[in-house]
Amino acid sequence: MEKNTQATAKPTAYKKSVWKKAAARWQIYLLLILPVALLLIFNYAPMAGVVIAFKKFSLRKGIWDSPWVGFANFEKFFTSFKFPLILKNTIILSIYGFAASFPLPIVLALCLNAMRGRRYKKVIQTVTYLPHFISTVVMVGLLFSVLSNRSGLYGALYTGMTGEIGPNILGNPKSFRHLYVWSDVWKNTGYAAVIYIAALAGVDVSLHQSAEIDGASRFQRMIYIDLPTIMPSISILLILEVGKILSVGAERVLLMQNTLNMQYSEVISTYVYKMGIASGASNDYSFSTAVGLFNSVVNFILLIVTNKISDKISGNAIF
């Protein structure tokens, strides 16, 4: 009887201590009201509208009065002749982008941490960090300006050296994937490395000193001291990246898309946009919602599976 009383008393005491701590720092929680409200209004409240994926949505009738069609919209997508192409392009772009963009920030952070010249390190970090703040529209414009075979830097150099007009890289459909992935690497690698650089700042200096006395090289210290230190951060970010692996951003794809590369550039996000918004009078909101819901469900499953695997292998997990 005493054990049960103690067991119920502990959670009650814990709850009281949590509320006391919250009351003591009420200013911080007051600042959270606006972001939490924005999160609820713009992220969670709209989730009720997902029900139109199972309806034949009509603007006149509204969400709740529109007729129920079950999984008809999903069947329409899965049996569409575009489904294999869209799914293939999305998977290839996602995996290619993940393989290129995920390890490079780790390598950059380790290399910057190993540099001895602080001024040179700051210059490199700033140069790699700044592209993140360039808007997607400007970045794509720069890409076109540099790689244009007639008016761009590439075209001018090629014509100057050979006297001929260079191959049209932007018009080559197969070059789309490489341009998309590596432009993203250039834009976000420096910014993504900041998390790992912050984690490396917490490495105990005495570990490096001891390893150096034992004759360990800088590379060995990087592998056996620095890398294990940031491994928890790597695991968490890996889970988050896998959880959004099929979420290829529509904005940059649409800006880089043209009639020549459509076979390689049409992905789920652009298809949702075109079917739901850009089709004019023939907009099919129910169908585009069903496609988007399919994408979200797949990402959610991948997130859960990756989280479980990471938890079992390394003990690091989000939940």
Question: Key terms for this structure?
Answer:
319 residues, MetI-like fold, mainly alpha, 17 helices
Summarize the structure.
By secondary structure, the protein is mainly alpha-helical. The protein contains 17 helices and no strands. It has one domain: MetI-like fold, CATH 1.10.3720.
Task: Please give a structural write-up.
- The chain is mostly helical and 319 residues long.
- It has one domain: MetI-like fold (Orthogonal Bundle), CATH 1.10.3720.10.
- The chain has helices spanning 2-24, 26-31, 33-44, 62-65, 72-78, 83-101, 103-114, 118-129, 136-147, 153-162, 176-200, 205-213, 218-242, 250-256, 262-265, 268-276, 285-313.
- Helix 6 (83-101) runs parallel beside helix 11, helix 7 crosses helix 11 (176-200) and helix 16 runs antiparallel to helix 17 (285-313).
- The mean pLDDT is 85.
Largest sheet: none
- Mean of pLDDT: 85
Rg over CA atoms, rounded to whole Å, is 26 Å
CATH architecture: Orthogonal Bundle
| Ends distance | 33 Å
Structure classification: mainly alpha
What is the string of SSEs from the N terminus onward? HHHHHHHHHHHHHHHHH
Helix content: over 70%
Please report the total strand number as a whole number: 0
Q: Per CATH, what is the topology?
A: MetI-like fold
CATH class: Mainly Alpha
Strand content: under 5%
- Report low-confidence residues grouped into runs of 5 or more: none
How many individual helices? 17
Sum up the overall morphology in one term: globular
Structural domain tally: 1
